[in-house]
């Protein structure tokens, strides 16, 4: 048997990068996955790929910050398979600037995607999880569910130019710890994983002009100058940044039965910063 046979997983931001690798890893261990991306094409590409591998998957396309998305995301799982067993709050992006040049919109947008959206998703899932846990307890069954919120070393140590992102990623750790207290009685393990440098499109190496991504009509600059990337890698015990697959592995650790007695924990996945 696979470790996650029959489990139902919600993975936000799973059309690309770390999120896609998480969806693939969970599916490879038997989970049924609700894939989400802001754009339909990458979401459906992942769904088709998972189905081709023999897994079960459906898409819930849209922005995690839009009104009603959280309820729609959870309902997709409920209508297709049942109550979610695993919730991975992964969707997000960076929008950097020094504080004197950072607008209110820039600050709030990053908080919304990294903190408010996970809060809404977990709130939307709370009643189905509570009802399921109550029934399982009455039946004498112990069923563990898993929440993994994605943080960052920027939220642990801070990072220049990221007052918005650092604040959001620190706050998600606080929310994780609070929810672990609330949901322990429902047998839900609530943990967070903080990533250091992981090589994705958001941290691509730049040799000249910057790259950008489109977030709901906004062109957001992404990428890191190559010299800074190389310098960052040299400060890590393992001597390099991580891969999306390695990042997904850290999240996977918090989803398997071996982590049933771990909750309210922040796992650093940073190559030994």
Explained architecture:
By secondary structure, the protein is α/β, with parallel strands linked by helices. It has one domain: Rossmann fold, CATH 3.40.50. Helix content is 43%, strand content 18%. The protein has 8 helices and 11 strands. The chain has a 7-stranded parallel beta sheet, sandwiched between helices. A two-stranded parallel ribbon has the order 7-10. Strands 8-9 form a two-stranded antiparallel ribbon. Strand 1 (8-11), helix 1 (17-28) and strand 2 form a beta-alpha-beta unit. It is globular and about 60 Å long. The model has no long low-confidence stretch (mean pLDDT 94).
TL;DR of this structure?
With 273 residues, this protein is α/β, with parallel strands linked by helices. It has helices at residues 17-28, 40-52, 69-80, 104-138, 153-157, 163-183, 226-234, 244-253; strands spanning 8-11, 32-35, 57-59, 86-89, 145-152, 188-195, 205-206, 211-215, 218-222, 224-225, 266-269. It has a single domain, classed as NAD(P)-binding Rossmann-like Domain (Rossmann fold, 3-Layer(aba) Sandwich), CATH 3.40.50.
Any chance you could write out the topology, listing elements then pairs?
Blueprint: E1 8-11, H1 17-28, E2 32-35, H2 40-52, E3 57-59, H3 69-80, E4 86-89, H4 104-138, E5 145-152, H5 153-157, H6 163-183, E6 188-195, E7 205-206, E8 211-215, E9 218-222, E10 224-225, H7 226-234, H8 244-253, E11 266-269
Parallel strand pairs: 1-2, 1-4, 2-3, 4-5, 5-6, 6-11, 7-10
Antiparallel strand pairs: 8-9
Helix pairs in contact: 1-8, 3-4, 4-6
């Amino acid at each position: 048997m696979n470790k996650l046979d029959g489990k139902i997983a919600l993975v936000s931001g799973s059309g690309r990068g770390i999120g896609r690798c998480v969806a693939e890893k969970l599916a490879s261990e038997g989970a049924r996955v609700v894939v989400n991306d802001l754009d339909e094409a990458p979401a459906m590409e992942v769904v088709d790929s998972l189905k081709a591998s023999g897994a079960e998957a459906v898409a819930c396309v849209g922005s995690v910050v839009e009104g009603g998305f959280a309820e729609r995301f959870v309902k997709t799982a409920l209508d297709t398979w049942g109550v979610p067993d695993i919730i991975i709050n992964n969707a997000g992006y960076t929008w950097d600037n020094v504080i004197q040049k950072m607008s209110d919109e820039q600050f709030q947008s990053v908080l919304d995607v990294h903190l408010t959206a996970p809060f809404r998703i977990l709130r939307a899932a709370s009643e189905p999880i509570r009802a399921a846990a109550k029934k399982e307890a009455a039946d004498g069954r112990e069923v563990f569910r898993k929440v993994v919120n994605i943080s960052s070393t920027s939220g642990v140590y801070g990072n220049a130019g990221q007052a918005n992102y650092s604040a959001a990623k620190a706050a998600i750790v606080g929310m994780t710890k609070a929810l672990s207290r609330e949901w322990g009685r429902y047998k839900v393990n609530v943990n967070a994983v903080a990533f250091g440098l992981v090589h994705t499109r958001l941290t691509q190496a730049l040799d000249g002009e910057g790259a950008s991504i489109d977030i709901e009509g906004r062109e957001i600059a992404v990428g890191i100058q190559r010299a800074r990337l190389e310098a960052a890698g040299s400060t890590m015990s393992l001597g390099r940044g991580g891969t999306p697959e390695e990042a997904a592995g850290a999240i996977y650790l918090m989803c398997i039965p071996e982590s049933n007695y771990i909750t309210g924990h922040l796992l650093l996945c940073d190559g030994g910063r």
